[in-house]
Amino acid sequence: MQSLQHIFPLLSQPRKVVITTHQKPDGDAMGSSLGLYHFLIQFGHAVTVISPTNWANFLAWMPGTKNVLDYERQTDDANKAIANADWLFCLDFNTLSRTKRMEENLGNATGERILIDHHQEPQVDKFAYGESDTSKSSTCEMVYDFIIDSGNSDKINAAIGECLYAGVMTDTGSFRFPATTASVHRMVATLKDKGLEHGMVHENLFDNFLENKFRFLGNVLLNRMEVFYEYNTALIAIPQTDLIKFNIKTGDTEGLVNYPLGIKGIKLAAIIIDRGEERKSSFRSKGGFDVNTFARNYFNGGGHFNAAGGQNKEPLEEVVAKFVAAMKESREQLSNYQF
Ligand code: 5GP
Ligand code: MN
User: Fold this and answer.
1) C-alpha 129 to ligand 1 mean position (Å)
2) Which atom of ligand 1 lies at the shortest distance from residue 257's CA?
3) How many domains is the chain partitioned into structurally?
4) Which of 84, 217, 284, 316 is the most exposed place for a label (fewest CB within 10 A)?
5) Do 68 and 35 share a structural domain?
6) In sequence order, what are the residues at sequence separation of 6 or more whose Cβ sits closer than 8 angstroms to the Cβ of residue 20?
7) Which domain holds residue 321?
8) What is the average per-residue pLDDT within 213-228?
9) Are 224 and 126 part of one and the same domain?
């Protein structure tokens, strides 16, 4: 994988470009994809953004989402774009398997794949060019760096600002996590100078839910959360019947895993959701417990040191039992925690 600098001189030659990201895109995935989209179209590139799956309603306000192809619903159009693309930007994921059903066609594409990502252990052999930097707060910060380093700061507009701000703000837990460097704040300052209205982004992301999401949250915290004080750990396990009862849609469960981390003493928080086709898990930790390794070892997943996820095919009860066993195996690290 060669450095991104090699493509800077080529930016001015119009190409067919695909931008894609991980399945069930979050704010950083969608924000970085659309931020890059609003940048590249200014050079006359023909740009198609493809999401491997559908996305949360709370992302629908982002400028450009109406043109994003959902691979699962617009498979033929998406495959055509992938086959014809000169460049395929792969944002906010480290392994092609994160693109779910798109993996095969993305892997077989004849165009050059370009990685911009901040997850651990990227499949570097799959990419002609790219940058992988786990110290970065977000892929949105990396897209911002890409724009600046290529000498095109004049192309940053309000649309790019809104998309990139949404991603950096959500991936840093509202500028809270350690990766929120001075550079991140400088980036936000520049985006503000370019016309960003940050209050509007917060409102669109956080004040736009339906009542059922909050009824569901009440049920989750009251009935589905178990706290293992001995292990400084809390687990939320959600059966599929809850998702149906509360009419839960993509994105409604986002952020739930953070609630137990607010309990005094809790170092590891986990959520396992029975999505029918798979049991999807998310892990969050504080301080020295490495959930990336935990997710890799027990849940076919990965991610970052303090935020990771995975998925299992076994029934919910078995995945819960697996979690409890894994927690017990990690007793040493979890119990002797220095806050
Ligand atoms: P979330 O819990 O918000 O879905 O994901 C947290 C982090 O873990 C994200 O950076 C995400 O990319 C990563 N992640 C989530 N699920 C998986 C998975 O199934 N496999 C891998 N490799 N990473 C995951
Ligand atoms: Mn990210």
Assistant:
1) 23
2) 2
3) 2
4) 84
5) yes
6) 33, 49, 50, 51, 52, 88, 89, 90, 91, 99, 102, 106
7) 211-336
8) 98
9) no
Query: Which ligand is nearest the CA of 269, by number?
Result: 1
Question: What token pair was written down for 138?
Answer: 């977000």
Distance 178 CA to ligand 2 centre (A): 14
Whose alpha carbon is nearest atom 20 of ligand 1?
A: 301
Closest to 47 measured CA to CA, from 104, 13, 87, 106: 87
Query: Residue 12 C-alpha to ligand 1 middle, in angstroms?
Result: 34
Other CB atoms within 10 A of residue 338 CB: 6
Alpha-carbon gap, residue 144 to 30, rounded angstroms: 14
Q: How is residue 322 written in tokens?
A: 């697996």
Which residues contact ligand 1 via a Cβ below 6 A?
A: 22, 119, 282, 301-304, 307-311
Summarised one tens digit per residue, pLDDT across range 82-108 is 999 999 999 999 999 999 999 999 999
CA 193 to chain centre: 26
Residue nearest to atom 10 of ligand 1 (CA): 303
Nearest ligand 1 atom, CA 284: 2
* Centre of ligand 2 from the C-alpha of residue 71, in Å: 20
For residue 296, give the ligand 1 atom closest to its CA: 22
Per DSSP, helices labelled H in 15-157 are 27-40, 75-84, 103-108, 139-149
Q: Mind listing the pLDDT tens digit for each residue in 321-334?
A: 999 999 999 999 99
pLDDT tens string 182-198: 999 999 999 999 999 99
- What is the C-alpha to C-alpha distance for residues 131 and 183, in angstroms, rounded to an integer? 17
The alpha carbon of residue 246 and the mean position of all alpha carbons in its chain are separated, in whole angstroms, by: 24
Between β-strands 225-228 and 268-274, what pairing exists: parallel, antiparallel or unpaired?
A: unpaired
- DSSP annotation of 41: G
CA of 273 from ligand 1 middle (Å) equals: 14
User: Which stretch of DSSP H or E encloses residue 263?
Assistant: none
Whether residue 216 sits in one domain with residue 155? no
> Residue 174 is which amino acid?
S
- 0.85 cut: is pTM over it? yes
Identify the residue whose C-alpha is closest to ligand 1 atom 16: 309
